[in-house]
Amino acid sequence: MFYNKKIVLILLGLLVVVFSCEKDNIQSTNATNNVYNVETDTIVSDSLLLSILDEEDVFKEAILAGRIVDVSGMDVVKDNPKKVYAHYMPWFQSLDYDGYWGQHWTMANKNPNIIDADGKREIASFYYPIIGPYSSNDPDLQEYHFLMMKLSGIDGVIFDWYGSKNVYDYQLIKESTESFMNRIDDLGMEFSIMYEDRVAQDIYNSGLSSSVVDAAKMDFEYIKDTYFGKTNFLKHNNKELLFVFGPGTITTTSDWDSIFSVFNQDQEPYFLTLWAAQNMVGNSASGEFLWVASDHLLAHDYYYSTYLTNNLVTVGSSYPGFNSFYENGGWGLHHNWNINHADGTTFVETLNYSHHEAADFIQLVTWNDFGEGTMLEPTDEYGFLNVQLLQEYTGVSYVPEDLQTALDLYNARKQFANNASVQYYLDRSYSHIKKSNLHRARLLLRAVNRFFAK
Q1: pLDDT on residue 313
Q2: Distance between CA 452 and CA 454 in Å, rounded?
C-alpha cells in the first residue's frame, strides 16, 4: 500500500537521553519508515470478530440507556518526564472537505487535482502526507493527528496563530484552531498560541484598527478572553505561556508595554520571543525559544550557552530537517540552505541537544509544515520513522503497531464515511485507543473491514 524503503537502524548511542533516575538511556531503536498491515499479521476467526461486534452492540444499548458514560482524557505514561509540544499549522483546506484546495497545498503553481500514476496529488511540498493532502477542519484528521501525538508521547500543541480579524486567510486559521478544542479536551492535551506579530500590520493596513499597536492589543484581548480561561492552556509556574514568532514588526519595548496593558498584573503571561529577540519586548518578555536555523547545531550551542546562564525560560527546538518548497512553489521566498533529514539522524541530534541542555520543555518544529519540510507527521517518504523515534525518546509503552491502528482508524473513517452503523464501531475503537486498549481497537477495526467492506 505504501512505499517501503530499507529498514533504518538508529545505532546505539545516537539517542542518548538522560532522564530522571528512572531511566538512564535509550539503548537502541529499530525505527523504520514502514507501515504495518495488521489485518494479516495474525489469523483471527470470523466467530471472534462477530462476537466483538455483538459485545459492542450491547455496550451501545448501555450508552443509550445512560448506564455508561465515556470519560474524556487519555492517560499516557512516559518514562521521560520532559514535556514535549508540537508546533502545529492549522492552515490547510481540501477540496473534499472545504470545497477548494487551500494555498498551503497549492502555493502559486501546484494543482492537487492533478494525480500521478502512483495516485499522488500534486502538492506544494517535497514530501507527501501518508493520508494525502487534508483539511485542518476535518474532525477525522483532528482525531488522527492527535491520537498519533498521544501515542508518541506528545503532551500538547502550540498553534501557529494569525490574529483575530478577517484579513487574508487569518480568520480561517483562527476558526481552524478553535475547531480543535473539543478534540484537545477529549484527549486531555494542552495547547498554546504562537502569535505572528506581522499580522498587526496587515490588520492596520486593512483599516480594521487605528494603529499597529491597537491591532495587536485587539488580538491579545482575544487571546486572553478566548483561550486563557481554558483549563488546559499551557502554563509554566502557574502562568499562561504565550509565544510570538519574532517579533518582526512591533519592535520597541514601549509598544509592547502598551500591548501588555490589556492584562491585569495577575493575568500577565510568560511571554516568549524568538531567540535573540527578547530585547525588543523588554520587561514583558520572560524568555526565548529556539528555532530551526541555517547553521543548525551551532545555533543550538549558542542558544543554550547564552540563555541558560541568564536564567530565562528555555524552550528546546527539535526538528527532523528543513527543505523549503517556497521557491519551487512560486512564492518567491528563497532559502539557499537546507538541513538533510538524514534518515532520522537530524531529529535524534536535536532531541539530544534539547534534553541534555536542560530546556524547560521541547517544541517540536513542526508537526505538519509541509512547505518548509519540517513535518514529523507520517509521510510516504519516512513512514512512522520520526514518530517512532519520538516514542523511544518519550518512553511511552506504545509501539509502531499502535501508530498503525490510529492510521487504520482514519482510513476506516473515510472508507465508511456514509455508514452510521460502522461509524459507531469506529467511535468505539477510538474509545478503546483512549483507554490504551489497542488490542481491542485493532480487533474491532478488523471486524469492520472484514464484514462491512464491499
Answers
A1: 83
A2: 6
